[in-house]
Amino acid sequence: MLTFVPTPIGNLEDISFRSIKALKDAELILCEDTRVTKQLLNLLNQKLNLDIDTNKQFLSVHSHNEEKFITASHIDIYKNQNVAYVSDAGMPCVSDPGALLVDFCLKNNIPYDVIPGANALLTAYAMSGFNEKEFTFFGFLPHKPTNRKSPLEAIMNSEYLTILYESPHRIIQLLEEINALNSDKEIFAVKELTKMHQRHFKGKISDILKQFNCKDSKVDTRGEWVVIVDSCERNDGEKITISDIKSLDLPPKQKAKLIAKMTGQNIKDIYETLNL
Predict the structure, then answer these.
(1) In degrees rounded to 5, what are phi and psi of residue 250?
(2) 180/183 Cα distance (integer angstroms)
(3) Distance between CA atoms of 138 and 114, rounded to whole angstroms?
(4) Residue 58: Cβ within 10 Å count
(5) How far apart are CA 267 and CA 264, in angstroms?
């Protein structure tokens, strides 16, 4: 059986009884980074007085080699052994590897289970105070500025809350990009969830940027960030569809620009599709 085990995103006490049992029972542990997982197990043993065996077999399974572990030769391993999969921190398959393994289990009748646990996006959503039942999880924006503009514009114009992850190296860049598009947009930003230096901000993006740039109380940007961007006011009238735009008597380039605004897709890609 293959069990997907969530691990703490900061506070070791967030490990669950089920996760501990799965890690104890596992004969083989698949993990993003064997060093990170071994260190985690050692800390759990020391801080929480556990007795998880750290001498069992560990194999590194990450986004670059996950496909090697979904071959026919692995079916018997997963069916006949207790195998655990853990990501470095948080929930497998959520901005972390694991989804290919789940799909492999489904297609090959391999028994598997996913244990619920610590998750940054849901924790941030619950902390945000936004009272909306629907939201979009985007994950990380592209690194290159030229590739970030279109998806960020789509997020800013979305009728749903959007949850983003961002690194400490680009958090200021992200806030400035949001401010440039709409200085009145309300956001919630939180860093270092569940850790000692956890800190959160909510309000208009222009006001939050002032806090970040204040010389007297400059914000320490170190640590991983979750940013939630408020939705736009919904229009309950009849919506324009992509098909509607395609049917307009307009040059393909103009159609491509309109569709790009709606979808966040690349204008050039849309233009080439329209000319097929």
Answers:
(1) -135, 155
(2) 6
(3) 22
(4) 19
(5) 9
Q: Whose CA is closest to 270, among 177, 150, 158?
A: 150
CB atoms within 10 A of CB 190: 21
Three-state SS at 243: helix
Q: Which amino acid is at 124?
A: A
Give tens-digit pLDDT for 49-83: 999 999 999 999 998 999 999 999 999 999 999 99
Q: What is the pLDDT of residues 84-111, one digit of tens each?
A: 999 999 999 998 899 999 999 999 999 9
Whole-structure pTM value? 0.79
**Residue 223, Ramachandran bin (φ over 0: left; ψ between -120 and 50: alpha; else beta):** left
Cα–Cα nearest to 54, from 70, 69, 41, 67: 41
- How far apart CA 128 and CA 126 sit, in angstroms, is 6
Task: Give 9's DSSP letter.
Answer: S
Q: Residue 191: name the closest of 215, 214, 212 by CA.
A: 212
What is the spatial distance between Cα 30 and Cα 87, in angstroms, rounded to a whole number?
Answer: 8
In angstroms, what CA-CA distances link 200 with 7, 76, 94, 114, 186?
A: 22, 47, 22, 29, 13
Q: Give the C-alpha separation, 49 to 43, whole Å.
A: 9
Helices marked H in the chain — which ranges? 17-25, 34-47, 75-80, 99-107, 120-128, 145-156, 171-181, 205-213, 242-246, 252-263, 267-274
Q: Decide: helix, strand or coil at residue 225.
A: strand
Q: Is 4 helix (H, G, I), strand (E, B) or coil?
A: strand
Q: Would you say how long the chain is, in residues?
A: 276
As to burial, measured by CB atoms within 10 angstroms (0-12 exposed, 13-18 middle, 19+ buried), residue 46 is exposed
Instruction: Give yes or no for a contact between 225 and 167, defined as CB atoms under 8 angstroms apart.
Output: yes
